[in-house]
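User: Just a sanity check before I run the rest of the batch. Below are the structure tokens for the first item. I only need the designed sequence back.
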């Protein structure tokens, strides 16, 4: 049995598309997954399965989720080993203790160089970013809420993504290790 983490995009934001975590846990269990646990209301689910790879699980979950809740949520599914690489690959270890200033944008796929170039042009404030495979690491020294760059990053990059702060990244890694 392998551990996976599912990151939902666009649920429980601003009082819209409400999905209660207890219902989401039950949904995963109904689909036959075990060791199901959720973390905070933004849609983070750790689960165990012996069946499937991340891409196949993503497709299965998105279809079943839309059938249950009646709207689409992009879901990024990654295995526990991917989370270990995510944390180990942090290019900003000097700011890792300040969880509100370091974020990981999990991308649907690794962007092409020509997709990254416009990001570099738009990153003119105090923020710094590094793209590694299917992750954008963002250091926003003034916080994500005040970052103009963070506001435009998904639109400029044009690769579907979902962001998590570093505390959430570390917590999900620990959950995937011990669940």
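Assistant: Here's the designed sequence for the first item:
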């Amino acid at each position: 049995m392998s551990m996976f983490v599912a990151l939902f995009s666009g649920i429980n934001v601003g009082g819209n598309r409400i999905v209660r975590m207890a219902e989401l846990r039950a949904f995963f269990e109904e689909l036959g997954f075990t060791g199901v646990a959720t973390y905070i209301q933004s849609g983070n689910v750790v689960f165990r399965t012996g069946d499937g790879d991340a891409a196949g699980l993503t497709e299965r979950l998105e279809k079943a989720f839309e059938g249950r809740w009646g709207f689409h949520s992009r879901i990024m599914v990654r295995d526990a080993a991917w989370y270990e690489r995510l944390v180990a690959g942090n290019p900003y270890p000097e700011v890792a203790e300040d969880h509100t200033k370091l974020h990981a944008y999990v991308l649907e796929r690794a962007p092409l160089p020509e997709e990254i170039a416009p990001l570099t042009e738009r990153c003119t404030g105090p923020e710094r970013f590094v793209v590694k495979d299917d992750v954008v690491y963002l250091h926003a020294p003034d916080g994500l809420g005040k970052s103009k760059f963070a506001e435009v990053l998904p639109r400029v990059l044009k690769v579907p993504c979902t962001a998590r702060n570093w505390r959430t990244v570390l917590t999900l890694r620990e959950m995937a290790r011990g669940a």
